[in-house]
Amino acid sequence: MKKSLLSLFIASALLAGAPILASAQGKPATATAQGSASKLVLDNSTRVLTTLEQRRPEFRKDRGALKRFIESEFTRVFDQNYAARLVLGVHGRGASDADVKVFAEALSDNLMSRYGNSLLDFNQKLRVRVKSETSLPGNRGVRVSTELLRAGGEPIPVDYLMRNVGGQWKIFDVMVEGISYVQTFRNQFDGPLRQKSIPQVAAELRSGKVKADAPVN
After folding, report:
1. Cβ neighbours of 51 (radius 10 Å)
2. d(CA 217, CA 212)
3. Total-model pTM
4. Could you tell me if 131 and 145 are in contact, meaning their C-beta atoms sit under 8 angstroms apart?
5. Which candidate, 181, 22, 196, 5, places its Cα nearest to that of 104?
6. What is each CA distance from 12 to 106, 117, 118, 159, 201, in whole angstroms?
7. Cα(89)–Cα(182) distance, rounded to whole angstroms?
């Protein structure tokens, strides 16, 4: 996989469940068979892929329109405040909801501004095979295990960790080839958060002084 992991984190979160392939038998996955979390994966990705295809020329010309679309979809499916608390780890203990929200939004904006445009370069024939849906320990939610299928490339394993928020399933972590979005950024920001407050680190993310980053495989 040559794309940045961050590009795939974002794409996977937005494209969760691109036209679902069957499991082993080759039959279409159903909401009943896969559960409502997998249904969210299917419904969201179908909408996102259709929109990207229909509006690709517009988005290439107007990156502001692409940014607004990505932000809208990311907010719809990703539980960014909860994910931010997990990223903050020990540094988030006792932190106010307001500080966590500021950090979550700064991290999201930093990621989108740097990697959002990569969505336009993803193969238009992306598909996702749902492999399983299992409960997480301690009633924390579910893990939807999938493979991202690309024309001319090896399948990429992608797992979605999801929890029910007010009757709606939301993603709080994405694991691409076993590498966790949450753990990646927890490791990156542990050092800065030992030296600075959450609002200070968020401000540096906003200004671009600090950039969310991950290795390229």
Report:
1. 13
2. 16
3. 0.80
4. yes
5. 181
6. 20, 14, 12, 9, 26
7. 9
* Three-class secondary structure of residue 93 per DSSP: coil
What Rg do the C-alpha atoms of the chain give, in angstroms? 17
Per-residue pLDDT of the chain (217 residues; tens, 9 = 90+): 344 555 556 666 655 534 334 333 333 333 333 457 887 776 776 677 678 778 889 988 998 888 888 878 777 778 989 999 999 999 999 999 999 999 999 998 887 776 667 777 765 566 777 788 899 998 889 998 888 777 777 888 888 899 988 888 888 998 888 889 899 999 999 999 999 999 999 999 999 888 887 554 4
In angstroms, the CA 15 to CA 77 distance is 10
According to DSSP, residue 120 is labeled G
Report whether CATH 3.10.450.710 matches the domain 5-207: yes
Task: Look at the block and give the residue holding tokens 């405040």.
Answer: 81
Domain positions in the chain: 5-207
Residue 141 structure tokens: 């939610």
